[in-house]
Structure formats: structure tokens, C-alpha cells
């Protein structure tokens, strides 16, 4: 029997890319969205629709989902993974960076949920997996706005999980510690970036993207009557 459609946001690099490869290898048709469509297309995965979508643009996101459902049937799982981390001291950081993080990490995630949830409730079947962070459970220096967005991901996820539990829809939060990806590269302060690299070295290395993809596959792969509510994973050496 053919596998159902999975939607992955932010699949053009890092964790999203690893999840796309893993879920494609497991036989799922995919909708991959991100702004760098050339990176999505370069993955060259079978039964995959790639769309240039900024997750903060609801209409574009909605059209991509409609087109994917026309090809592959209803969305069975949404992996809300797209995110940005712009670290900075609160008194120095440009408020526009806070807005970018709130828009992508919170509004983009809510947009995804909004677009798939009605169908899932109607079908009485579906899974939403939201990528948060350990920075959504505890705070770190220079992370105020980023932590704010990731704490919000936990709150939103738990609230929606309760809301749709009776509809046989699962909501899972994956909260990774540090993972080797492009995430840090967008922070503008070289001092903060250098400090982060030292911190990673001191802990003896961080997780790789496949570690997170395995956690996603584990949570999604449970029978529908089992909801893995939260997975928190980090390098053993991460304090
Ligand atoms: P990357 O920077 O490698 O990936 C981020 C992805 O998000 C890219 O594919 C990017 O695509 C996409 N993205 C960013 N903004 C938008 C947007 N407006 N619309 C659509 N897509 C967007 O970092 P990671 O893989 O590390 O990050 C993935 C998730 O994991 C994030 O939510 C991050 O917060 C979380 N995380 C990461 C950790 C880490 O240490 N790396 C730790 C804990 C959580 P494009 O630029 O092409 O649009």
C-alpha cells in the first residue's frame, strides 16, 4: 500500500533536509517547502513536489499544500521545521531580527497547523510534528527572542494537542540540543558565533541532522493510537 503525504517546511538544509531524505526512503511522497527552491530540487527525491514558499506567506503555503494533495492525497503528517535563530544581546539586537524570528518560528508554524488541521480533524487521522529546541525549555545567554519563540512552540503544541486529541490527531514536539547545521550562520555578531563554537567544542561535539531525523521517524512511526508528546535529545556532553 502506498504511503501517505508528508509536508516538510525548511527542507532546503539541515534538519529538514535529513528528514526529507529519511521519510522519502521510507516511501512517503513529500511536499518540501522553503525559499531556496534550488536546494529542494537538488535533493532529487522521488514522488516529491518542491515549492518556493516563505512559511509566513499563508496564501503561497496554502496553494502548495493544495497542489501536493491533488497529486498525492491528503496530508498525513506536517513537519513544522522551518526556523531562524538570530542571537543577540537584548539591548543591542535590532528589533527587526526579533520580528523575523517571531514571524517564521511562531507564525509560520501556526500557518502550517492552520492549513492542515481542519482536514486532519475531518479525516480523524493525522500527525503534526513541531521542531522546537532545548531553548524552548530553558534559557541561554543572548537567546531571549529565540527562546521566546521556542517556548511558544511548546505552548502552542501542547494546547493544540489537547484540542485535537479527541480527533485522533497527534501533536509531537521535537526539542533538539545543538545540531551541526547552517542555523548559527545567520547570527550577525561574530563574537556570539565564536562563543557558540567554543561551547560546542567544550561539550565534545553536537548532534548530527540524522539524529533528529531518526527521532522524527520514531515518533511518526508509532501506531496512530500512540502519541509521543515530546522528544528532547542532545549530545550526551551538552550540559
Ligand atoms: P538550517 O538553517 O539549516 O535550516 C533552517 C531551514 O528553515 C532552512 O531550510 C530554511 O530554508 C528554512 N526557513 C527559514 N526561514 C524560512 C521561511 N521564512 N520560510 C520557509 N522556510 C524558511 O537550520 P536547522 O536545520 O538547524 O533548523 C531547523 C529547525 O531546527 C529550526 O526550527 C531550528 O530552530 C531548530 N533547531 C535547530 C538546532 C540546531 O542546533 N541546529 C537546535 C534546536 C532546534 P530557506 O532559507 O531556503 O527558506
TrEMBL record:
Alphabetical keyword list: Oxidoreductase
A molecular function GO annotation: oxidoreductase activity, acting on the CH-OH group of donors, NAD or NADP as acceptor
Origin superkingdom: Bacteria
Family (UniProt): Belongs to the short-chain dehydrogenases/reductases (SDR) family.
Regions crossing the membrane: none
Name of the molecule in the record: Oxidoreductase
Amino acid at each position: 500500500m502506498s504511503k501517505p503525504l508528508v509536508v516538510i517546511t525548511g527542507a532546503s538544509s539541515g534538519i529538514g533536509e535529513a528528514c526529507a531524505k529519511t521519510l522519502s526512503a521510507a516511501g512517503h511522497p513529500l511536499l518540501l517547502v522553503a525559499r531556496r527552491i534550488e536546494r529542494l530540487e537538488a535533493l532529487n527525491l522521488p514522488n516529491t513536489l518542491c515549492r518556493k514558499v516563505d512559511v509566513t506567506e499563508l496564501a503561497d503555503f496554502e496553494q502548495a499544500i493544495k497542489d501536493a494533495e491533488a497529486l498525492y492525497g491528503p496530508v498525513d503528517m506536517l513537519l513544522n521545521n522551518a526556523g531562524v535563530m538570530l542571537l543577540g544581546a537584548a539591548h543591542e539586537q535590532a528589533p527587526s531580527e526579533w520580528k523575523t524570528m517571531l514571524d517564521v518560528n511562531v507564525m509560520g508554524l501556526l500557518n502550517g497547523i492552520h492549513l492542515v488541521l481542519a482536514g486532519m480533524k475531518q479525516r480523524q487521522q493525522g500527525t503534526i510534528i513541531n521542531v522546537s529546541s532545548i531553548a524552548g525549555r530553558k534559557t541561554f545567554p543572548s537567546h531571549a527572542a529565540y527562546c521566546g519563540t521556542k517556548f511558544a512552540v511548546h505552548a502552542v503544541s501542547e494546547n493544540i494537542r489537547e484540542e485535537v486529541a479527541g480527533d485522533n490527531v497527534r501533536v509531537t514536539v521535537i526539542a533538539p540540543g545543538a545540531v551541526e547545521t547552517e542555523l548559527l550562520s545567520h547570527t550577525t555578531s561574530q563574537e556570539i558565533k565564536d562563543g557558540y563554537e567554543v561551547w560546542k567544542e567544550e561539550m565534545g561535539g553536537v548532534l548530527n541532522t540524522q539524529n533528529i531525523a531518526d527521532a522524527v521517524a520514531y515518533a511518526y512511526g508509532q501506531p496512530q493510537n500512540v502519541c509521543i508528546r515530546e522528544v528532547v535529545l542532545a549530545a550526551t556532553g551538552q550540559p
